[in-house]
Each structure stands twice: as structure tokens, then as C-alpha cells.
């Protein structure tokens, strides 16, 4: 009789494009989300936690660079119920499409305008790459139900305050603002009408300006270009003069007369807005977009947000198709080293804009809306690159165990430390080898170890070892310095909490 084939053990590995997060990463993200939520709440936004699963129909056709709604998402079909086919469901790919569904579903119970913030993971069924994962955190804030440019200006101001609250210094970031209507006007003025089949390709090419630069966009709009790998990328085949007019707009190379509104808009914004007026010519939608940018610039200047923080910039396009007006992008301007040791700017950590047509899919009526999305993991990576946060989190105080029969006494010690808001734990491994306990404390990055055996208990004492200072002394100190700077202290049992607190305060 043949033996049953033994089932192979499953591989202990994360799925491709996903990763696990440990210790400091989780704690730091939680703290960042708390800080961001504090800023959003201060601006009057309410928290919303929507379902992580939506119907594919509700998500719609707004996935990045794909035409079919279940192409870029993790989707599955429910089982049939009688003659009814099962619904297609998907994990949310962003926080905006779910908001449109929530507002359409609950609009009679929500205030207008409705201001909400939300945070959590989103999922993209896209090809992963270095630093690009299929699951990542977003932190969004949106205002639904008002067409006022004051809402867009407020979102930009709040984003600036948020970046500074989490530790991005002023001068290390720039929030760039444009308007999709202006770009539509530029294309109209350049002779590329809304029904021209080349228009979507032109928009996608413009969105690559930050990556390929002025010359690269010019090549892609005309005959094409050779990329870094040597591959040929086909161009849109625009006439050279038409392509150059678009590039002029992106680079603000038209030369306007000096604007007379520099005081209320900021001189740089005034120049750029005047340049945009030239670029859109007589286009109605283009001039409408320029008017909206002018209102935003005036409101931001009045609140004290100068062009060193928030600036009008014609090169901002934003890739998603649902933007209908102002678009914004937060860029970190400091340099980091890439994996090959080359200097480069850190780049974008947040983006958003106005999307007045998204709720209309559910209600049939246009509902104006605007919002911003922060890439939390990108922002954390930026703070690590600047040395503002460390990858290593300080561990708990470890109460070692010299006598397992006195476990109740050790637990009493750790309870006192915890009640004093000091992170602490009792060693729960095999206490037989004391050296292993200190190795454990070292692996846990513990700042302090508490030591008490029979002699200490009889004398009403405890030994407290400063593990951080001890490591520093062991690295650099001479024997005389070792004697002068002891890293282990004997104190009365009643002084345990006070001494541990003093050591921790001295390590900060």
C-alpha cells in the first residue's frame, strides 16, 4: 500500500511586494499618525474610518494608468446567490474613492461642507520595486460640499503645518500648487482639443516632467527618446512648435510684464500667474483656472504662508484622472544618497487636489470636493534620512531574576515601574544563567537592568545597572575612568523608581 505523500511545509516568507514591520517602525508610525491627526483635528476635521473593502463598481475606473477597474487592485468575486451573480469586491487602493461612496450614502446625515480625515493601509496590485510596496499607509484629509477656493487654500496651509509638526523643518519642504484647468487651457491654446486622441498621452508625458526634465518632455512630446537602459520610448508626435509651447508653460519661460499684485500674492506667485495668463491665451477654462490660483495665492499670503512654503508651480500635474481644478504636491527639497551613492532630492511625500466629479458617479449631481493624501511611510523614511528619528527604539527596563522563588517580589518591582509610566518587564526566560539575562537586555536595547538576589532582599536594597553608560565606558574608558564612573548603583528598595527615573532622564 502506497504511503500518503507528505505535505510540504509552507515557506515562512512574506508575499512579494509586502513586508513586516517591527518595534520602532510601528511605534514611530503610530506617533506620526497621532501628530498628523492632532493637526487635522485642530483645523476642525472629523475622523472617519471606512471599510477596507469596497465593491469594484464603487472604486470606479480611476486607478493609476489602467483602464480596467480590477486590473490594479486586489479583487475577488463573491459566490453566486441563486440566480444572482456575486459582487466583485476589492481592497481599497486609496482613501478618496471610499470617501465618495461614504458621502453619497450618508449625505443626508452629514454636515455640508463635510470635513473628514482618515488614515490606514491601502493596497495596490502593481509591480513592486525598491521602496515600492503593495501595501502602504496613507493619511488623508478632505472637504466635501464646497467649491470655495478657501477650502483648497486651507488644505495647503494644513499640509504645511503638518509637515512642520512631524519634524520637517521650514526650508526642507515646498508645497507646489497648480490647476488642471490651466493645463486644459494651455492644450486648447496649443490646438490639442479635448477630443484629440493624443491628449491623454500628452497629459501623461507632462506628468513625467520631474523625472525626465525639460528636454525629456520635449522629446516625448515629439519623436520620442532613448531612456537610461537604451530602450526607445515612442513620442506623441506633436509638432515642434506645439510641444515647445507646452514646455514653455511647464518651465514658466514666457516673459510677462511685471505683475502689480506682488504684495498680495507674493512676487514669485504674481510673476507665475501672469505667465500662465499668457500661456492660456483666450481659453475660458484656462483663465478660470488662473483666477482660482490667484484667489488661493491671495488667501495663503493673507495667512502668512509665503512662497518659501507654498508656491504656484506650472509643472505640477498629478496623474489621477479625477482631478478637476487645483492640484497640490508636497516635495521635500533636501538631498539624500540613493542606493548607488548618488545625490538626489528626496521628492514628493504628499499630493492631492480638487475632484468635483467623483461623488457625481453615485448621485448624478456634481458635489465639489478637495483633499490631500500624505504617504506616511515616505514621510517616515524622510525623517530617518534627516536623522530626526532613529531606526532603533529604546527597550524596556529589565528586572532580572536571581531567585525564581521570589517572582512575586520581582513582579511587584515591575508593577511599581509601570505605575510610574516607565516601560518595564520581568525576565521570563530561564534565569539559571545570569549572563544570558544581560544579553537579553542588550538585545532588547534596554537602558537599565534591575538586579536583586537574596542578599539584596535581606538588606532591603536593589542593584540598578545603567546599561547605556556601561556600554559607553566599556568602549572608551581607561581603568581609572571605569572606577570613577561606575555604571551600577546600589539603592534602597524604596528608591527603586526614583533612581531608575533619574538614570533615564540623564540618558535623554
UniProtKB/TrEMBL annotation:
One Gene Ontology cellular component annotation held by this UniProt entry: cytoplasm
Subcellular location(s) per record: Cytoplasm
Aminoacyl-tRNA synthetase in keyword set: yes
Aminoacyl-transfer RNA synthetases class-II family profile domain sequence ranges: 1-396
Any single biological process term in GO: histidyl-tRNA aminoacylation
Main location: cytoplasm
Reaction catalysed by this enzyme: tRNA(His) + L-histidine + ATP = L-histidyl-tRNA(His) + AMP + diphosphate + H(+)
Record key words, sorted: Aminoacyl-tRNA synthetase, ATP-binding, Cytoplasm, Ligase, Nucleotide-binding, Protein biosynthesis
EC number(s) on file: 6.1.1.21
One Pfam family here: tRNA-synt_His
Single annotated GO MF: ATP binding
Residues binding L-histidine, per UniProt: 94-96, 124, 138, 142, 318, 322-323
InterPro entries registered for this protein in UniProt: aa-tRNA-synth_II, aa-tRNA-synth_II/BPL/LPL, Anticodon-bd, Anticodon-bd_dom_sf, His-tRNA-ligase, HisRS-like_core, HisRS/HisZ, HisRS_anticodon
Keyword Aminoacyl-tRNA synthetase: yes
Enzymatic class: ligase
Domain of life: Bacteria
Family statement: Belongs to the class-II aminoacyl-tRNA synthetase family.
Assembly and oligomerization: Homodimer.
NCBIfam families the UniProt entry points to: hisS (TIGR00442)
Annotated protein name in UniProt: Histidine--tRNA ligase
Species assigned in the record: Seohaeicola zhoushanensis
